[in-house]
Amino acid sequence: MKKHTFTIIQNSIKTTYLFRASYIKILISLGDVYIIAPNDDTESKLKLEEIGAHVYGIRSHTSILNLLHSIITMNFLTLKHVLMGSTIISHFIVTTLLIYPSLIFTKKPCFIYTEGLGSFIAKSTLAQKILKFLLNRKRFIRLFCNKSDRFILGNPDDYVSNGIGIDIDKFKPRKKDIREKFNLLFVGRLISDKGINDAIHIFKQLEKKYDICLTVVGSIYPNNPTSLNQESINNIKKEYKSKINFIGYTKEITHYYESSDILLLPSIREGFPVCIMEASSMGIPSIGYDVPGVSDAIENGINGYKVPLKNINELMKVTEYLLDRKVLNNLRHSCRKHAEVYFDSEIKNKEFINLIYKKIC
Fold it and tell me: Quick check: 316 and 206 in contact, CB under 8 A?
């Protein structure tokens, strides 16, 4: 007979399925699992239900009215599950803040995963103090993506996951090829904080000397003033034609890793970048700035290189150094080995489940 009830709260049904399904399957073997999140993808909801989860279809945030309705509904359901003695697991800090009024009533350990902090928290000491105060409750078990986030908001003994991990069997190194052309890859939102402008700058400079291409995987964000827009993308494509390829969002990203040599991630801050884990698993080195998240994910000379923040000249030098088949082939093996040890989702899921079980039993 199942002994436990778990309630997972997240910002999206889609991301819940994409990134949490593997550990949810383990939780289902231990008890009943409920999911409270905005229903932004019916297919993902059905897949979660197929593996045995009970999913609440909260209205998506398509308007202010829907947002208010979602917040009220999520708080009502969270409070209901808190009072029935469910173990709460909340992903993403914004989601946690939205349901915070209901969480304060919990009498059981409540697992707060502080994902999605963003650069705003890093820049604002006032926001850090407020958030640290809110998270410092007796029943709250804080979980951090990287050591920097823990240093800012937590205590030395708080859990650091170093990412959620990936399916390393899905992301396997491609067969050795003899292509002369090098392909750079950028994966992420097409906004300034993610480094899209720096990645394009690197390409433009190196394209003058080398036969290279740049593949950009990610979506534009119209509500973000730093985002690329369709007009700017069209202008870049007009100038560089097939040498730069904007893919947009895609579920089948392995194809683009297979045809790439180097991952560029000049982001100013990350939780723990999934794209670095995926690239490493496929034998592709990553290059980025030495900032929270990226510095935790990259081991210099093992699965890539990191350089001082905004030192774009050094970033370009390291990228140029990697435009060598012998160097890339040597890193190819160390990237994969690093991923097998540090990025395997099965290992990370067991660690996470063990932590939960230890706290509730």
Answer: yes
CB burial of 269-286 (b: ≥16 within 10 Å; e: otherwise) equals bbbbbbbbbbbbbbbbbb
Over the stretch 295-312, which tens digit does the pLDDT of each residue have? 999 999 999 999 999 999
What span, in angstroms and rounded, lies between the C-alpha atoms of 216 and 209? 20
Angstrom CA distances, 190 to 150, 197, 249, stand at 27, 8, 10
Q: Report the alpha-carbon distance of residue 294 to residue 266 in Å, rounded.
A: 9
What are the structure tokens assigned to 247, written together? 């893919």
14-44 pLDDT, tens digit each: 999 988 999 999 999 989 999 999 998 999 9
Give CA–CA dist 321/139, Å, rounded.
50
Task: Residue 189: name the closest of 148, 160, 226, 150 by CA.
Answer: 226
Could you tell me which of 268, 267, 263 has the C-alpha nearest to residue 331?
263
**Helix (H) or strand (E) segment spanning residue 265:** strand 262-265
The answer to whether the beta carbons of residues 3 and 32 sit under 8 Å apart is no
What SS3 class is residue 203? helix
pLDDT at residue 59 greater than cutoff 90: no
- β-strand partners of 203: none
For residue 1, what pLDDT is reported?
A: 36
Cα dist from 250 to 11, 149, 167, 234, 259, whole Å = 20, 29, 17, 19, 15
Per the structure block, which two tokens stand in for 334?
A: 């160390």
